[in-house]
Amino acid sequence: MSLARLQLRPDSVVWDIGAGSGSVGLGFGPVAATDGLSRKKIVRVENFGERPVRYRLSYASAEDVPGVTFEVPKRITVPAARRGGGPGVANFTVTMRVSDVAALRKTPDPTVELTRPAPRATAPKMPVRALGSTTRTPGSSTLSTGAVKLAGTPVVNGPLGQPDSVNGLLGGFQLQASSPELAPCAATQRNQCLHFPSQRDGDIQYVGATSTGADPAKDVVGIALTTFGTWISPAYNATARGVSGEIAAIVTIDTNGDGKDDREIDVTRIAPNTDVDVAETYALPSNKVVDDQFLNGVPGSTDSNVFNSNAMVLPVSVEALGLPAGSTTISYTVQTFSLDDGTALDTVGPLSFDVAHPTVKVSNPLLPAAAGVEGPSLLSLDVPGRLGITRDTTATGTQDLGLLLLHLHNSDGDKAQIVETGGKVKGRKHN
Length: 431
What we know:
Layout: E1 2-4, E2 13-17, E3 31-33, E4 37-47, E5 53-58, E6 68-71, E7 75-78, E8 88-98, E9 122-124, E10 128-131, E11 137-138, E12 143-152, E13 156-157, E14 166-167, E15 169-178, E16 204-211, E17 220-231, E18 247-254, E19 263-269, E20 277-283, E21 288-294, E22 309-317, H1 318-321, E23 329-338, E24 344-354, E25 360-362, E26 379-381, E27 385-392, E28 403-407, E29 416-419, E30 425-426
Parallel strand pairs: 3-9
Antiparallel strand pairs: 1-5, 2-4, 4-8, 5-7, 6-8, 10-12, 11-12, 12-27, 13-14, 15-16, 15-26, 15-28, 16-17, 17-22, 18-19, 18-23, 19-20, 20-21, 23-24, 25-27, 28-29, 29-30
């Protein structure tokens, strides 16, 4: 925002965003827009001088966000300081208005390479939800197939695979754990509790897993998690590449059943000067990097709502797991840590998962070639229609709580949906 003819003098005029914060920056944060809306912020101007001051205001965009406009009054007058003490005060309102949801894009920041999409404060988030129940049809003695009907308004804003486009993505996972909300920390408690309300973004809600198969030459496993709070930026390994986020999400994996962790998956940046995140897998105890996969299983050129979210998918190649010959079962644990104070926030696991035989999965998830995914895909486009699912009872001893659907571009807190075994749908439905 450009404030014309403005001279900031500490002994004269103070511009303040917020109650006495002294800040002159103004932001609206992430906004979930399913229809036209507006948001307002108040700017307080204090005049300590002996004379009134007048300003002409205007808005100058550093980068345009299609479908969004900002409004400020043309002029303000700030009265002189009061004779009895205290400044003269005037307030004015800055209005952000979303007028055309269909035009919204995640416009890359000018300081970021155009091939590396950056997070934007305003993004379209429209609900697509599963309605009805599955219809099972006989398969083999261990396999059965069915479908879930998806209904709602899809996110289709721009061509798939373009840096500023947003298209709804969906993932289906074998739900393996549901974790209760953490309580605030007691006086002597340090871990498995919340020291600050902002740590809710590391409070695990659901954990699930899926795979595209068990072929080391091509297949991948995806570990999915959702949290009760929304993170601004997803976790980074503080000792690895890039700038650290506010939480760290870590998956440790026992690949051979000896009770010891053999692999660890962390989230980091593909390079320090980008906002493209990867799930990086280390061999333990050597800490050698054995795999890098795009976070959520899609490259940075395809938006998967990594930022300002509460859902993520950490992929790892089957080859990188280094499973013993003839074995397809892993045991994994999901942990979150606060990078504010280094405390362990939440732990879920160990959980058992059969890479070759997920008990429930989306049948043949497929993203168009424009999405940039090479090989089998963990995600599909989140659009209305019938979503095929497969039930497999081959695996035994694995946690099976139903089908976890992640609608990655739904509004915050409304991304996870559970389809129970037998077809019951849990979660708020949308028309």
